[in-house]
Amino acid sequence: MIRPGKRENKDPDGARWMRKDLLSLEELSREEIELVLDTAESFKEVSSRDIKKVPALRGKTIANLFFESSTRTRTSFELAAKRLSADIVNFSSTGSSTSKGESLRDTARNIEAMHIDTIVMRHSSSGSAEYLARSIRAGVINAGDGIHEHPTQGLLDIFTIREKKKKIEGLRVCLVGDILHSRVARSNIWGLKKLGAKVTVCGPPTLIPRGIETLGVEVCYDLDRAVQDQDVLNILRIQLERQRGVFFPSIREYAAEYGISKERMKQAKSDVIIMHPGPVNRGVELAGEVADGPQSVILDQVTNGVAVRMAVLFLTTLVER
Amino acid sequence: MKILIKNGHVVDPKNNLDAAMDVLIENKRISKVAKSIADKADQEVDAAGKVVCPGLIDAHVHLRQPGFEYKETVETGLRAALKGGFTGVCPMPNTSPVSDSRSDMEFLLGEARRLSLIRVWPVGAVTLGQEGKELTEFGELKKGGAVALSDDGRPISNSNILRRALEYAKKFDLVIMVHCQDEELFCGGCMNEGVVSTRLGLPGIPVEAESAEVARDIQLADLTGGRLHFCHISSGKSIDLIRQAKSQGSRVTAETCPHYFHLTEEAVLHYRTAAKMNPPLRTAEDVAAVKRALRDGTLDILSTDHAPHSENEKDAEFDKAPFGITGLETSLGLSLALVKEGVISLKELIDKMSAKPAGILKIDRGHLSPGAPADVTVFDPELEWTVDKKEFESKSSNTPFLGKKLKGRATDVFCDGRWVMKNGKIA
């Protein structure tokens, strides 16, 4: 179905990929999202081979540009690029020119001058990925911009749900925790809504952003009520140090009100799946037994992350500039 | 030396003039405003099809000097103002160092005199270094030329300091111009808090960060009897409070800027830093409230809050870019849209851009009475033009209105009887 090196990526339904960048799920159509998921499906098999490599991006150069520390996402992109036979280089902000006052634009243009095809960037400013994409000719993959979006995480979450539930349309998905500061939540909401899921956000009122209902989600402050009829519970990581004190009084109370415990799981549907973008604060937002339990698909998410990122790098890097 | 401005449409709200008339300038002063003046003049201006009004005054600009000369200087700022049809501007004191002493006022007046373009009426800081802790020497500032006091750019969070400032300023009959911002609610926000900030994942500034402080400041104005002026009002909530306060006799005045009746928070979409300013752009309901308040007089005057920034500073991640947009060269064209839309009359517009600002600042300007200093603006209300950064006199071009087609532009400006802009060209 997918032939490496093809300039125009078409799936059998005729959806076409025309973007050099992946900045958000808000900007993608349902067809584009499905194209990424289908492409990822065909790449997933590669990682289980003895020789985990296809020559799809041979000769292409990808740069990981991470201004915020990340192990999981950076490694996932690195593996994805390598399994596509692309060359990948890592830039980290610590000790680099950015800490010497260089602007993001200059940093990126310098990297681009080395003839990089695609830049994968994580940055603490919302909108930085879109800004970068406007400023340079290379492709830009948003690996998390501030509290805006984390589109590949959204895609891998949706991929995992589709794999487990065989569909998205009509499913009930609840995002639990800090919605306000979560780029994962925003990407999930846009992607899931476009594919027809019913989305609920549940968290303390202090961590639900104003006007979130306009995105078509239901808001619930009571987790006991929210868990009852969900097909998927996607538990967000709570930023322990940043939020405590102003947004909620204590870790203890947060865990009591919004932690997924064994007890709370009894009220959930028997076939509910538990997701978490990681890293998990065990015993805070998610009990260890649940994270390791039969309903948890957390490690599948990690596995699928590589396939989804292969799909994204493949589709974007081969678009004619 | 006599200059005769002929065949124009004279609008002088203070003298209740709104008719085809000629204006005669003699020895730097207005000598006569009448129909068909036959006097022989040294120079004549044909103002047919144009509006002739008292010189426009912008009570709120940032000239950036000293300290930020890469953004703007007194010279480039005054040229921008002149191009926009203004005969005088009030620079805010958030310079580096902060303009909080008599010599700082004298520096500005000296620059204006040296440049001989238009007037500068400086605004001195309320507190030393704008730190909100200790009062500046109001008397000295006034002697140096200050016409108002403000810590603009920063709120005066300490209620007691603002109370004392309002009281003490009564001795000098100086107005305190307040930038209303509850710092704790503001909390590092960079755009209006609401649907758009949620979508963009940008930290929001709730309307209440403005209106809560407006409410407090009304109380302090009432408590002290001092003269208080609200800078750059952006929201319906603040307007409701000001309207109520005025109806109950509070001594407060208020301004807004063209961007608050032309744009909503949606202008920020795609992280456009050119639409990043403080207070931030709000919603369509707020825009409607601003227009209503301009019409019913709750908002007394129009200012620009001209806030130049270099391209390097604005070409950045949204949260890292500075707040502020330029406004001097687009203000008249943008504001004339209010007249075209039927929000206010031309006379009311001139009132809000000339006579009323002069009244708030207690300067003898904003009218064409015989004997008044000859500060006169002539503009063509039908002249169509496109906002183009190459044509700016300002050093900066950080405006969300680039490329916008506007109607109405100043053609001739007289300051102190000097013909400083002739047919759109600065003399």
Characterise the protein shown here:
- The complex is a heterodimer of chains A (321) and B (427).
- Chain A has 321 residues and is of the alpha/beta class.
- Chain A contains twelve helices and eleven strands.
- Helix content of chain A is 36%, strand content 15%.
- In chain B, strands 1, 2, 3, 4, 5, 17, 18, 19 and 20 form a nine-stranded mixed sheet that branches. A six-stranded parallel sheet of chain B has the order 9-10-11-14-15-16. Chain B has a three-stranded parallel sheet with strand order 6-7-8.
- Chain B is of the alpha/beta class.
- The radius of gyration of chain B is 20 Å and the shape is globular.
- Helices cover 30% and strands 24% of the residues of chain B.
- In chain B, helix 7 runs parallel beside helix 8.
- Chain B has a domain of 298 residues: Alpha-Beta Barrel (TIM Barrel).
Topology:
The complex is a heterodimer of chains A (321) and B (427).
Chain A: E1 9-10, E2 16-17, H1 30-44, E3 61-66, H2 72-83, E4 87-92, H3 104-112, E5 118-123, H4 128-135, E6 139-145, H5 151-165, E7 172-176, H6 183-194, E8 198-202, E9 218-220, H7 223-226, E10 232-235, H8 240-243, H9 251-258, H10 262-265, E11 273-275, H11 288-291, H12 298-317
Parallel strand pairs in A: 3-4, 3-5, 5-6, 7-8, 7-10, 8-9, 10-11
Antiparallel strand pairs in A: 1-2
Chain B: E1 2-12, E2 17-26, E3 29-34, E4 43-46, E5 51-54, E6 56-61, H1 74-83, E7 86-91, H2 102-115, E8 119-120, E9 123-124, H3 138-144, E10 148-150, H4 159-170, E11 175-178, H5 183-186, E12 191-192, H6 195-200, E13 204-205, H7 208-224, E14 228-230, H8 236-247, E15 252-256, H9 259-262, H10 284-296, E16 301-302, H11 311-314, H12 331-340, H13 346-361, E17 376-386, E18 405-415, E19 418-422, E20 425-426
Parallel strand pairs in B: 1-4, 1-5, 6-7, 7-8, 9-10, 10-11, 11-14, 12-13, 14-15, 15-16
Antiparallel strand pairs in B: 1-2, 2-3, 5-17, 17-18, 18-19, 19-20
